[in-house]
Design the sequence.
């Protein structure tokens, strides 16, 4: 017998930084999940260390609230395109979605992506135009753009019948109209209950779900290859606020967590042991970038990491595949190398940072695009839509730089107040290393985002505009005198007292060629005293690169050495003789 249950499953989706997690904070606080005197802070769902540091959501998470006796399961999803696999993984658990759109930026590349995935699953959408209190908010224009986006992506007439609310997520208020009194999120609660359909389930049918079960009951576990095994469930847990609660049974349509099934992976099915029928697996978009992870081979190898061996590195990478659905790992050309593929630089850098914090020591190569071949053996490469918001004074330098990276301008809009939005089609390899250049060219007055739109024929060679590297010529500890000499030839990345080794990159040359410098060289002592001899040498503060900036900096013959304590840049071949021999063999 099919019937609806008193559960509503809703996913909150949006482009990065449009206010999803802040809105979830408001929903949790106003649903009285917490005690009156309980201190919960902000960005409650962003519990991961990297999420709090970067200010973005990386992993999709579940929570639940009770409103008017109805349980609302809320799924908070990442907004960055690199973590689109997390969105694809969890959307099929929802019956509706809340699409947040910034009142200034409007629909962005990831907005299109998440909405397209939601409509493909026939989810009932609710649109919220958020941050309407911003000084430069353009509510009517953003609503018009949103309607155009729905007209483009909708596949049925019902998709065009969506309610629109206006919100200030930071203040915890939502309105049916921008001019309504700003009181609470009550309009959003009511809209969820009245708009999102409850799951239609057959409570008499055999068990079949991606995640659910009855406790202490034998079930069938069906993996992606269709192999069925008999397993036993120990506990069933449901969500209430930020907590998990043990329950004696779970009804179809709810979102639950299970314990007791070993080797279960995302996308596999748990079913009734007498009716082991698999559900459709979750389709995840393929990766676009790859990097080589390998054992650290620098002279400092083994000094700072807890897990430096290839066996430990391999086990950690393959273990990541159990939860990171967008990731791919394969063995490399040697036992010490592994090819790791992901959805973008940020996706891979989050993995690198997580491993570094876990105590792993390794080295990584420059990101490379993953190419394909069509039926005629023509080489295809990934193409992305790039959206840039900046001031009109930077159009010239951006256009010149992007033209060298094979980008094609497809649209440009100006709001008449000096703000401009530029839209490009650009190969993914043209974006490698562009983020650092973008921040420099716009002097920090800009925002950029991109998303994969498909594969097209190879567009030819892309030249690099980066200058040469300053390379340490010997192993030792840097001193002020040596660094001062290096700063006369370019920008340095390290401070005095830093241990270095031959072949380590310590700065950026002011000329195109690489240059070896001795940063460990001390000033020679003499018997002659000078009236100015006691004046200390003043160094220019070094440019300290983050992990993402280090990956952007790399050329093909360079690596990033990653340890729990340091991130170092180095040449693939450490000695000058090895580098000369490698160049002669190219």
Sequence:
């Amino acid at each position: 017998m099919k019937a609806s249950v008193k559960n509503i499953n809703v996913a909150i989706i949006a482009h990065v930084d449009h206010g999803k997690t802040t809105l979830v904070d408001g929903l949790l606080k106003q649903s009285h999940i917490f005690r009156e005197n309980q201190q919960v802070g902000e960005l409650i769902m962003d519990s991961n260390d990297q999420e709090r540091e970067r200010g973005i959501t990386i992993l999709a998470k579940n929570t639940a609230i009770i409103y008017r006796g109805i349980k609302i399961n809320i799924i908070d999803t990442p907004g960055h395109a690199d973590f689109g696999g997390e969105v694809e993984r969890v959307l099929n658990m929802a019956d509706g979605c809340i699409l947040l759109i910034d009142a200034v930026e409007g629909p962005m590349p990831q907005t299109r992506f998440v909405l397209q995935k939601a409509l493909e699953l026939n989810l009932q959408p609710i649109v919220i135009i958020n941050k309407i209190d911003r000084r430069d908010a353009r509510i009517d224009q953003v609503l018009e753009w949103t309607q155009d986006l729905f007209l483009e992506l909708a596949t049925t007439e019902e998709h065009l019948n969506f309610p629109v609310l206006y919100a200030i997520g930071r203040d915890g208020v939502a309105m049916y109209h921008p001019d309504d009194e700003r009181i609470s999120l009550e309009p959003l609660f009511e809209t969820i209950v009245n708009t999102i359909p409850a799951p239609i389930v057959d409570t008499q049918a055999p068990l079949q779900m991606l995640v659910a079960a009855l406790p202490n009951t034998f079930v069938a576990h069906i993996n992606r290859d269709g192999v069925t095994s008999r397993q036993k469930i120990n506990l069933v847990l449901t969500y209430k606020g930020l907590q998990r609660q043990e329950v004696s049974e779970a009804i179809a349509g709810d979102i639950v967590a299970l314990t007791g099934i070993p080797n279960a992976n995302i996308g596999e099915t748990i079913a009734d042991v007498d009716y082991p029928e698999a559900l459709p697996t979750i389709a995840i978009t393929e990766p676009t970038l790859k990097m080589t992870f390998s054992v650290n081979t620098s002279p400092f190898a083994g000094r700072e990491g807890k897990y430096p061996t290839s066996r430990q590195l391999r086990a950690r990478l393959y273990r990541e595949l159990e939860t990171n659905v967008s990731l791919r790992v394969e063995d490399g050309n040697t036992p010490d190398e592994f090819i790791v593929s992901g959805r973008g630089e940020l996706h891979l850098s989050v993995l690198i940072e997580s491993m570094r914090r876990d105590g792993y020591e390794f080295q990584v190569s420059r990101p490379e695009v993953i190419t394909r071949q069509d039926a005629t053996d023509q080489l295809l490469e990934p193409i992305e839509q790039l959206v840039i918001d900046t001031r009109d004074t930077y159009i010239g330098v951006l256009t010149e730089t992007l033209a060298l990276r094979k980008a094609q301008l497809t649209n440009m809009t100006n709001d008449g107040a000096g703000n401009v939005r530029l839209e490009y089609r650009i190969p993914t390899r043209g974006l490698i290393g562009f983020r650092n250049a973008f921040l420099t060219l716009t002097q920090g007055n800009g925002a950029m985002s991109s998303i994969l739109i498909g594969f097209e024929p190879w567009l030819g060679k892309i030249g690099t505009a980066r200058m040469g590297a300053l390379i340490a010529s010997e192993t030792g500890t840097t001193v002020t005198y040596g660094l001062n000499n290096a700063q006369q030839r370019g920008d340095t990345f390290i401070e005095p007292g830093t241990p270095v080794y031959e072949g380590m990159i310590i700065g950026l040359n002011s000329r195109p060629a690489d240059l070896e410098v001795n940063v460990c060289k001390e000033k020679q002592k003499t018997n002659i005293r000078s009236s100015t001899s006691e004046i200390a040498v003043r160094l220019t503060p070094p440019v300290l690169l983050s992990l993402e900036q280090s990956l952007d900096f790399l050329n093909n013959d360079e690596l990033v050495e990653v340890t729990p304590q340091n991130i170092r840049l180095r040449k693939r071949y450490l000695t000058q003789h090895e580098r000369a021999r490698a160049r002669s063999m190219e």
